[in-house]
Structure formats: C-alpha cells, structure tokens
Design goal:
CATH architecture of the largest domain in chain B: 3-Layer(bba) Sandwich
Shape of chain A: elongated
Number of helices of chain A: 15
Strand order of the largest sheet of chain B: 3-2-1-4-15
Number of strands of chain B: 15
Strand order of the largest sheet of chain A: 3-4-7-8-9-10-13-14
Number of domains of chain B: 3
Structural class of chain A: alpha/beta
Shape of chain B: globular
Strand content of chain B: 15-25%
CATH class of the largest domain in chain B: Alpha Beta
CATH class of the largest domain in chain A: Alpha Beta
Radius of gyration of chain B: 23 Å
Helix content of chain B: 25-40%
Helix content of chain A: 25-40%
Number of helices of chain B: 18
CATH superfamily of the largest domain in chain B: FAD/NAD(P)-binding domain
Number of domains of chain A: 2
Oligomer: heterodimer
Distance between the termini of chain A: 54 Å
CATH topology of the largest domain in chain B: FAD/NAD(P)-binding domain
Radius of gyration of chain A: 27 Å
Chain lengths: 475, 466
C-alpha cells in the first residue's frame, strides 16, 4: 500500500499531498475541519490581511461542449473577516487536527513591521507554514499588493526577506503567472531564502460577455472587471510554468514546489508531482463538487502508485522533469506515421477531414474508388502514394464535400464498410498526431514508428556540426 | 390558355376568395379532452439537455445519418448549431432540406433511418437522439414565431396545381414557391395536411402542430382550396394549370373480406383516428377488435385504449415476426395494454343485441410460408367495434382519369429523379406512388417533383422562346 504522507519544504507534515488552495473552500475553521474530515491533507487558509469589502457577483465560468466550469474566474478579494477571527479559528483547527497541515496565506501592506507582526501572529496561532500571496491578480494588485508585488522581483525578494527575518516555520512564495517569465520571481524568492514556492496563482481573464446585455461576466451592476482564471482550462499552462521553475538552476537549485492550477483528479496530481511538485493545491474542483472529491484523489493515486511500484511520493516526484527539453534537443530522425485499425473504425471520417483541412492531406477516402482503390477495394494497409500535383488540381484545392446516397452495399469484412474507412498515405504522413487526437474511438488510430535508419540527430547537433557549415546538396 | 393571361389573373382572384373561406387551419387548436388523453409520448428535450445531446454528436464528415434521411437533412450541421446556441439557424438548416421538419421529427421511424445509421452504433454507444434534437430545433423555431425565409428568386407566372394537401403536396408546393412558381393546392377535407393532420396518432403529432406547418407553407404564398377533385375537375385543372402534381395519397382502408362487414359497428381505422383527432369521437365501446398489424393498426388500437375501451385486441393472420408495424410500435402497443392474437383471421361477422360476434379461423403456414386457414378451427370473439386496418386502397377511379398517366399495380409510375409521370405535364409523389410509406419519403418525393416541374417548365419556356 502506497504511503502518501508528506513532509514538505522542510517541516510541513501532512497525511497526504492534497491541500486545499487559499480560496473560498478554506475561508473558515468550520470549513477546514470538514475538509480534513473528508480526507484533505492540508489547507492553505484564505488569505489573511486587513479585512476587505467584496462585491457581488464574484465568479463567472467558461462552459465547454456542455460541460460546466471548464474554467472559473473570480473577482473576490482576500478574507473579509477580521484577522483575529481567522487566527483564533486556525488555533482551534490545529488543536483538533494536529496531524493536518494548516498554512496561513498572508497579504499585508508592504511595510517591514506590518509583515513581521503578521508572521508572528500567524505562527502564534499554530500555522505550520506561511504562504505569501504575491499572486492575487485583481483588486488587491490595484492597492500595491498581490500580483503588484509578484510582478516585480525586487519587491518580492524584499518582502520575502522581511518575512524570513521573523518566520520560524517554512515560508512559501506564491507566484503569479501574469508575468513574462515566471522564473524571474522564483529566483527572487530563492535569493531571499524562501523555503518553497506555490504556483500558479490565477491568470488574468475576462471569461465572456453576455450577448444580450453586452456586459462582460461576472456582472457587478452592469460592469465587470478582469478576474483570476483557474480550473481545468489552466492546467497545461500551470504544468509548463512549474516545469520551467523546477528545471531552473539560476540563483541556486530548485526549491520545493506546491503545484496549483486546474488539479481536479488524482491523474492531474500525479502529473504535477511527476513535474517535481511535493504537494498539490486544489480549489475549482472542490468548489464545483465539494470536499468529497479528495477520496478518489487519495484512492486513485494510491492505486496507481501500487500498480507502478512506487511506495512514497518521493519515489516518482520529478521523474518527468528530465523528459522535458528544449525543441532544439529533439531527435529530427525519429519518424512515426498514423495507422488506422480498420476493425475498430466506425467510419466517422473525422480523421479524413481533419487531415485534409487541418494538417497534411494524407488521409484519403479512396479504398474503393480513386488511387487507393484502383486495383479493387483495399482491405488492410496498402501504401498507395500519389504526389499531390499528380492527383490533379481539383483534388488538391477543393475541400472534399460530403456525398449523398452512399453505396448501400457493405464492402469488405469489417463492421464498417470499406468505402467509409479512411486510408493513410504513409509517404505523405508527417506523424503530427492530429488524426489520432480527433478519432473518437480508443486505440483506433495509433502512431507507429517507421524507423528512418538514420542515427538520432537534433537541430542543435545539426546546426553545430561540420556538414552544416557547407551547403547541403540534398535535403 | 396563354402564359400569364388576363383570364388566369381572374381565376386566381376567385381562388383567393376561396382561400379566405378555408382559413380554419390557422385557428384549429384541437379538443382539450383529446389533448388530455393523448399527451406527448416522448418528452421534449429542454434547452440544456439538447445542448448536452448536441455536443455528444461527433460531427462526422460525410455523415451516414444525412445519407439515411430521404430528404438529406444536413444532420451534423443542424445539431452543431444547437450546440452553439444558434437554434434558429439550426431550424432553418432543417427546413432548407425538409419543409415538414417538425412533423418528421415526431413521426419519422428514426430507429431505421438517421439514428439507425449513426456511427455511435459502431462503438456500442447510444446513437445521437437526432429526432428529438430536430424536434427541439423546430419547436423552438415555431414557438419563436419563426418564418420560413423566402429565397431570392424571380416571381414567375406559371401555375401549378397540387392535388391533395398532404406531405408530398406540401413539400412540392413549398419548393415550387421557393422557385417562384404559383401554386394552388386542392384537398377534399376541411383541414389541409393530409395524414399529418388526420392520420397520425395524436401523442406523436398533434393535428394543431401539423396545421402550424401548413400555415408556414401558406405563408410562402401557396393557395389552398377545399375541393373534391373528381374526373371533371381533373380535366379542368389539366386545362387551366401549366403542370399538375398528384399528391393525393391513398383511398379508404381496404374492406374486410367477411360476411356482414358493412355494419355501422365497423369503423375504418383512418376514419377512427381522424374522428378523435378532430374531437368528433371522444368515446369508444368497451370491446374493440382491430384487424391487421401495421403501424396504422397500432395507432388505432392504442387510440381505442386511450378513448376508454376496456379491451383492445389486434387480430393478425400471420405471426409476430411478420407484422409490418415497426418493432417499437409493437412494443408500445403492448405497453398500452393492447392484446395480440396471432394467426387469426376473421371470417364472418354477426350483429347481436349484445354486440358483434366475430367468427375467426386459426391460420398456419403452408409449404411456401403463406398463411392458410386450418380446417375446423373456427372460434368466435365477442366485441362491440371492429376496426379494419389492413392497408389503404389506391384511388384507382380518380387516377385512371388522369390523362396519359400510367399506373402499375395501382401506383402511379414516375421517373424517380424528377417525379414526372408518363404524361409530361403530370408529376406525382408520396403514397400514390410508393403505395404508402413514411412522411419523410413523401416530402422527398414532393421536393424532387418540384424541381422536376421547374426544370420541365424551364425547358418548355426556352422552347417557346427559341
């Protein structure tokens, strides 16, 4: 049985790496205790600071293909409750849940004394660690806090140094993605001796506009304001930024990372950990479905670890980092082509039109008629290649149009008639993956290697090699 | 008569008066008791469910559902317009191919047409609910007061008569108007729409909804005239119109070949259905026997049940697997409480003071698989009403009066692509051509015939000019 216990950033201990991110689900002690009962390993308290006044409404979302909340946007500020209430509740939670991690997210005005005071009070309440909110992209940034700090490495470094002067518990710096190069602020945190990082905070966003009122969402009395975007939609952006930070050795080796950004399932969590994160933080999924989702996160991750033979989180943490490189180090002589399993094909022809209009025009509907079927129906793989210019101008420039009244007879031995099963011209196929991405049937289109017989060669090697210095005769 | 002569204008003016007299279809709402007893068989999709279902559609290229639809509705296109929230555009996509998109969405046997060909079957998933999505788009369109957009074209003076105001004629008339031709429809009944108005089970398609569709076709400028077309009238139309479309469907239900079957307790299945749909027949006697096991027999049997019959029995001379009703119709009848007696043939019919005594005989298959009566197996069934539903007879008497129009086995012979009969001036489509098929087949026939008529008139016009 996998061991999910975690010791993060030099001393934050928790039963599992699943934390609730600093957000509405961690607004109060009552909520955090229910979350711990549901199984969450830790909680980053809704950011504590001088209480603010919020607006209504506050959230808006992006639905995608009838799925709700593919992405969520908010214009809510930090905690609207008095500092002493939050701290009192933290103390209460820690008293009742000593083995769970409570991290105090903090945001105060940029004064050394104010930060010293806040750090001492939070630690005094029993917080296991501190997270500096340098990421909030809306509202607070207009007041010189949140991402206004996180976008200026000098400020971030300065405030982190102030915090470190007073802190006895691990200090995490939460990074904003609303910056050209996220590594710059990560380096500032490292210079300030931060114990760890959290990334990413929400992304500046306007989710949409009501096409009846012409008012953007979320609507506050007829007006809107940019908010912070999160949820499943941002996961790829988060993974990339985390990879960038976790592979960066400028100003010292990478420091512990708590991954945030669209983590909804154990699979997402596994990916963030493979990219080097020690813990993950979840918000949107919990806001959508409640704390109960953590049960499958724990169960799914444990089962996967058992299956893969990983005993602890450390056994696989960061294992995918070395597998990310710069483009110039990719092997130019590796070649794959699309392969369609005729027995699985349902004849939707999405690969055909995707390849024709969106890729490289190498998937044809000609097993029964045309070049592919010139010698009779093609059952199974037959490589028939016609250079585009030989196929005739019409075939090249005209997007195929659907045919009415298709042949009524069933051709061939597959469940789908051969005239509906596309054929790949492997000579033209560039191995782009698009057809396999659009294919609705699992394992129907696979990308198979066609060895080139050439030694691996990268662009970096090619451009620095001796041959490259002289003009090539063939390409 | 000359093209566009003064006489023609006078004739049109007189017909306009006739049309005003026959605007009943615009106000017909149906009897409230019928509405209560025959509520929608399948619930409508709500807006959100429609979007979810629309998103499930793979958006196949060269989609098989489109080929499987006799009217070739661009199914993925209209479905993805629902997904994008462009429901009016979706409805117009449907109407472009099939002007009776609303009734087809309710009466089409989608299991054997579009949905039957859905690629989802290939991966063992439920096919996309194309019929219900189409219904959602069409109902949204009608509820929003949508109007069929008239194509940009030149108004032409040639006049076409459509005989019958059922689906084939409606589709033909709508397309002819879209091509700029003048159209007058003739029907013997008070309400237009043919079987869509009078013959489809109310829980599938309400007469009022059929009439809403008719009103839309009327909105294109089609003129409706209530007139029973007999041989003399046919000759008149032949003289006065530049082309004639025969969309007159089939005639009465075939009579039972039994002794004494002329009793007033014997009700033709289509009359029975029309009777309750128009609100004229709201009751039925307790014991009902329906003879035949086609889709109309099922509709009549279920209607009898809903009108309060205690027992409804369907007699069929062959076995269950031989019935011409669709399987889902059979299952529906069973759910409604209809009893089936297989291999049973009524032979004689006697009225008593307690009702009807129907003498039946058990059937068996002979060596060739044909049903034959088994000697000495006679038995009786007591009932109050007998509803024959053993197919409609062709309107031979009238059709034989159409000058130069060849018939084959009671059906009008046409050129499939153009709908043209053996008399080039006459075109035909729908049940009088195919012997009785789906609404969607009639629509496809009517539309093809309209294009055929326009092409034929164009050729004549050019010949005149040349």
């Amino acid at each position: 049985m996998a061991d999910l216990t975690t010791n993060f950033a030099g001393g934050i201990r928790c039963p599992n790496p699943f934390w609730l991110a600093s957000a509405p689900p961690t607004n109060s002690g009552e909520q955090v205790m229910r979350a711990f009962d549901a199984g969450w390993g830790g909680a980053v308290w809704k950011t504590i600071g001088e209480p603010i006044t919020n607006v209504s409404s506050r959230y808006s979302s992006v639905d995608w293909n009838a799925q709700r909340m593919m992405g969520l946007n908010n214009i809510e500020l930090i905690s609207d409750r008095p500092i002493e209430v939050n701290l009192r509740e933290i103390a209460e939670v820690k008293r009742l849940y000593p083995k769970h991690a409570v991290i105090a997210s903090l945001m105060v005005e940029s004064k050394r004394e104010a930060w010293h005071e806040m750090v001492k009070r939070a630690e005094g309440a029993g917080a296991d660690g501190l997270e500096l909110n340098f990421g909030c992209p809306h509202g607070m940034s207009e007041r010189g806090m949140g991402s206004a700090v996180g976008q200026v490495p000098e400020y971030a470094q300065m405030i982190t140094e102030w915090v470190k002067e007073a802190a006895r518990t691990p200090v995490l710096v939460k990074l904003t993605p609303n910056i050209t190069d996220i590594r710059v602020v990560a380096r500032a945190a490292k210079r300030a001796k931060a114990d760890g990082l959290s990334a990413i905070n929400t992304i500046n966003s306007i989710t949409g506009i009501d096409l009846d009122t012409l008012e953007p969402r979320p609507n506050v009395d007829g007006k809107s304001s940019h908010g912070g975007y999160c949820g499943p939609a941002v996961k790829p952006i988060a993974l990339n930024m985390i990879q960038q930070v976790n592979s960066d050795h400028v100003d010292g080796p990478p420091i512990p990372m708590s991954g945030i950004g669209g983590v909804s399932t154990w699979r997402d969590a596994a990916e963030f950990i493979l990219m080097g994160c020690g813990t993950v933080q979840v918000c949107t999924a919990a806001m959508h479905y409640g704390y109960r989702i953590v049960e499958d996160m724990i169960d799914g991750l444990s089962n996967w670890m058992d299956e893969k033979g990983f005993v602890t989180i450390e056994d696989f943490r960061g294992k995918s980092l070395p597998k990310v490189t710069e483009w110039k180090h990719l092997n130019l002589n590796y070649r794959i082509v699309a392969h369609i399993d005729e027995a699985l094909c349902i004849g939707c022809q999405l690969c055909h039109i995707a390849c024709w209009d969106g890729a490289h025009q190498c998937i044809h509907m000609d097993r029964v008629s045309g070049p592919g079927g010139a010698k009779g129906p093609v059952d199974g793989h037959v490589e028939v290649h016609a250079k585009p210019h030989e196929a005739g101008r019409e075939r090249i420039v005209v997007t195929p149009i659907p045919k009415l009244d298709p042949p009524k007879v069933h051709i061939g031995s597959y469940a789908t008639s051969l005239d509906r099963i596309p054929r790949v011209d492997e000579t033209e196929c560039v191995g782009c993956n698009l057809c396999s991405l659009v294919c609705p049937v699992d394992k129907c289109i696979t990308m198979v290697e066609r060895p080139t017989g050439l030694a691996p060669e990268t662009w970096a090697e090619r451009t620095t090699s001796a041959e490259c210095a002289t003009p090539q005769t063939a390409g | 008569m000359e093209w566009g002569s003064a006489g023609a204008h006078a004739w049109l003016a007189s017909r306009r008066t006739a049309r005003r007299r026959n605007d009943v279809d615009a106000t017909f709402t149906g009897h409230p008791e019928v509405a209560a007893r025959f509520p929608d068989l399948h619930p409508a999709l709500d807006a959100r469910a429609a979007v979810i279902e629309a998103n499930r559609c793979l958006n196949c290229f060269d989609a098989p559902c489109m080929g499987a639809c006799p009217t070739h509705i661009d199914v993925p296109r209209f479905i993805k317009k629902i997904a994008s929230g462009n429901v009016m555009g979706s409805a117009k996509t449907i109407l472009e191919a099939n002007v009776l998109g609303a009734s087809c969405s309710r009466v089409c046997p989608v299991e054997v047409l579009c949905e039957g060909s859905c690629v989802m079957h290939g991966k063992h998933e439920k096919p996309i609910e194309i019929g219900r999505l189409q219904r959602f788009a069409m109902e949204t369109f009608y509820n929003a007061g949508g109007k069929l957009p008239l194509r940009k074209r030149e108004e032409r003076s040639e006049r076409v008569a459509c005989i019958g105001a059922g689906p084939a004629s409606l589709a033909c008339a709508a397309e002819l108007r879209q091509l700029g031709l003048q159209v007058t429809m003739f029907d013997r009944r008070a309400l237009p729409g043919g079987l869509n108005t009078y013959g489809v089970a109310e829980y599938k398609l309400r007469a009022a909804d059929s009439l809403r569709e008719v009103a839309m076709v009327r909105g294109l400028g089609v003129e409706f005239v209530k007139r029973d077309i007999d041989a003399a009238a046919l000759q008149e139309l032949d003289r006065e119109f530049h082309a004639v479309f025969l969309g007159l469907g089939l005639g009465a239900m075939q009579r039972l070949a039994v002794e004494g079957a002329m009793s007033s307790s014997v009700i033709d299945a289509l009359d029975f259905i029309a009777g309750y749909k128009t609100g004229e027949r709201l009751k039925v006697a307790p014991r009902v026997v329906v003879v035949g096991a086609g889709n109309t027999a099922i509709d009549a049997a279920c209607a009898a049940k809903r009108l309060g019959a205690q027992s409804v029995t369907i007699l069929y001379r062959r076995q269950r697997e031989n019935i011409s009703a669709f399987h889902f119709e059979y299952e529906h009848a069973v759910r409604e409480g209809v009893t089936f007696r297989w291999e049973t043939l009524p032979k004689a019919f006697a009225s008593t003071k307690d009702g009807i005594v129907l003498t039946c005989v058990t059937m068996a298959q002979d060596a060739a698989g044909m049903p034959v009566p088994v000697e000495g197996t006679e038995f009786t069934i007591e009932c109050d009403v007998v509803i024959p539903a053993i197919g409609q007879s062709p309107l031979l008497e009238l059709l034989s009066q159409a000058r130069g129009v060849a018939l084959e086995r009671g059906r009008v012979v046409i050129d499939r692509a153009t709908g043209q009969t053996t008399n080039p001036k006459f075109f035909a489509g729908g049940d009088c051509v195919n012997g009785g098929r789906e609404v969607v087949d009639a629509v496809a026939d009517g539309k093809r015939a309209a294009l055929g008529i326009a092409a034929w008139l164009n050729a004549r016009r050019e010949a005149h000019v040349g």
